[in-house]
Amino acid sequence: MKSSKGDLIFTICNYTFLTLVFVVTLYPFLNVLAISLNDATDTVRGGITIFPREFTFKNYITIFEYDNLITGFVNSTLRTVIGTILGVISSAMVAFTLSRADFKGRKFVSTTLVLTLYFSGGLIPGYMLMRDLNLVGTFWVYILPGMVNAFNIIIVRSFMDGLPYALQESAKMDGANDFSIFWRIILPLCTPVLATIALFIAVGQWNSWFDTYLYNGSDPSLTTLQYELMKILQNTSISSTDPNAYRGTEALEGAKNVSPESIKMAISVVTIIPILIVYPFLQRFFVQGMTLGAVKS
Amino acid sequence: MEIAKKKAHTYKPIKNKKSFWGSLIHQRYLYFMSMPFVIWVFVFNYLPLWGWTMAFQNYRPGKSMGEQEWVGLQHFIMLFQDERFYLVLRNTLAMSLMGLILGFTVPIVFAILLNEVRKKAFKNTLQTITYLPHFVSWVVVAGIVTKVLSSDGGAVNQLLTATGLVDEPIQFMTKGGLFWIIVTLADLWKEMGWNSIIFLAAMAGIDTQLYEAAKVDGAGRLRQIWHITLPGIRPTILVVLILSIGHLISIGFEKQFLLGNSTIVDYSEVLDLYALNYGIGLGRFSYGTAIGIFNSLVSIILLFLANGIFKRFTNQSVM
Fold first, then answer.
1. Is B8 in the A-facing interface, judged by CB distances under 8 Å?
2. Of A238 and B300, more confident
């Protein structure tokens, strides 16, 4: 069928607009990458777009001289690995019990969980609780509070609901108990959805900085990568946009810690790289997981 | 293995009786697998609610409940007399409503336009790229936004000066009036692609025969979108609207914290940050908690308000 003139105009406008979206989304990333690969003193002249002007890896080497960044990297990796493992196990277990229509405690468990989606105690009571539990100033404050997450459980549960119940019945016939059914039959079948929430949890853990700021800000041995990056970026964000914004002592104080633009961008790139590595492998999973989770709840 | 088999059989009668204790024993594995986590949720999600009592005391850390001095609504009265509070409330409402409106509509439009793309490769590339910012931390995004908008060599200013729209670079990050827009657009940049996933999935489920029939009837692309695509994703739109209204409660403060600075604090401070500065920064836990409680109340009122409007227009309820 021949397309009309109106359709042709629509198509042209659409492609133009979407190309614009493409450029606007991608450009900042390429810009950051280019600056991070550019000589630090040359960057000050400005005007770097998507290609470095004086190519160098020096910025990336310089980063390793920041002691806190190494500690931060180790802590971020640790919290990501431990947090993800514990989070996935807990979500899978709870989701399994919720997917069992015959489970007597189901209503109670699901109500308790779903309610948490709609309220929270707030910043200060949360902080006081962590203090009372002696979690402030420890590594575990990164892991424990968010370990059981209702949203992830809902996603896994709706996936499990799609599995045929006959599988469990026949296993039961063979004498398997509920735990071994979960462990040997359900878990292996849930790989796609578990990969999805693993990605969610891992990204959340890797990206979080506020808990470090709130609970462990004064302890350099418990610092995280994002928190260090935050400090470095925040230190100079004003003076780089407006030299006159900070006057007097504050400006001098800030100027001492100013890291060159290229170094800052190099650190940013380092924090994005782990995500870029896992992203392509998991993309098809999370699209499926998102759709499922959102439609169900 | 033999023994296990026998055991499974002996439990059968208990299940039939359906008594509470019987089911507890019969389904013990299920209880073992969920109860520890319920306790967990109770400790980390429900116990902080108990902390709300702090707002009605002159809370002193380290003292027991009985030793605290109860002061009634004193902290709330102080709050309502504080001029700064109204400024912060205005910022919170402005940013959450702007975020709700744009964050809800733009992903729909984007998904519709993306759905009209016939070139598979282009579509896939665009999807991959636009999902990506969702996975990047706000710390990095704030850094990127500051960089792109900076007055010395930021891409936006370069573009504006090169096209002659402005004579000298605009200092975006020091203009309070622009802060709300910057935050909203930054959020849009980060989440638009991600939020469009669900609409694209819904569109994939629309019967292609409908489009064929419309084409035969001479409907153009825009008419097809209006009469087939939009009605087709209507249920999904409603679900997402429900979710995003629900999210009003957690408007967050990350972006405001990271993008804000001391020159525009009158526009960037939101209730949570205000609570943080007073409560933990100055050690005024009770006052900070009162702010937090007020924040929750505002969110719930917004939720009911949105629900009321929603009900009026669609005859469906959010909650």
1. yes
2. B300
Q: Distance between CA A295 and CA B201 in Å, rounded?
A: 10
CA distances from A18 to A280, B191, B224 (A): 22, 16, 19
Q: Which residues of A touch B155 (CB under 8 A)?
A: 27-28, 31, 49
pLDDT one-digit tens code per residue, A273-285: 998 888 887 777 7
Predicted confidence (pLDDT) at residue A290 exceeds the cutoff of 80: no
Does this model's pTM top 0.90?
Answer: no
Higher per-residue confidence, A99 vs B62:
A99
CB A50 within 8 A of CB A31: yes
Average pLDDT, chain A: 83
**How far are the Cα atoms of A107, A182, B10, B24 from residue A103, in angstroms, in the given order?**
9, 14, 19, 10
Pick from B107, B36, B45, B227: nearest CA to A294: B107
Between chain A and chain B, how many beta carbons pairs sit less than 8 Å apart?
Answer: 290
Q: What is the ipTM of this complex?
A: 0.85
**Confidence class of residue B160 from pLDDT cuts 50, 70 and 90?**
confident
Task: Kindly report the nearest CA distance between residue B312 and chain A, in angstroms.
Answer: 23
Q: What percentage of chain A has pLDDT greater than the value 90?
A: 34
| Residues of B in Cβ contact (< 8 Å) with A129 | 44, 47-48, 51
Q: What confidence score (pLDDT) does residue A90 get?
A: 94
- The residue of chain A nearest to residue B51, with distances taken between CA atoms, is A125
- B30/A124 CB distance under 8 A: no
Task: Choose among A93, A242, A297: nearest Cβ to B34.
Answer: A93
Contacts of B275 in chain A (CB under 8 A): 122-124
Paired tokens of B229: 């695509």
What is the structure's pLDDT at B68? 79
**Set of chain B residues whose Cβ sits within 8 Å of the Cβ of A208:** 137
- HSE-up of residue A60 (Cα within 13 Å, Cβ side): 13
Pairing state of beta strands B57-58 and B69-70? antiparallel
pLDDT, mean of residues A87-93 = 95
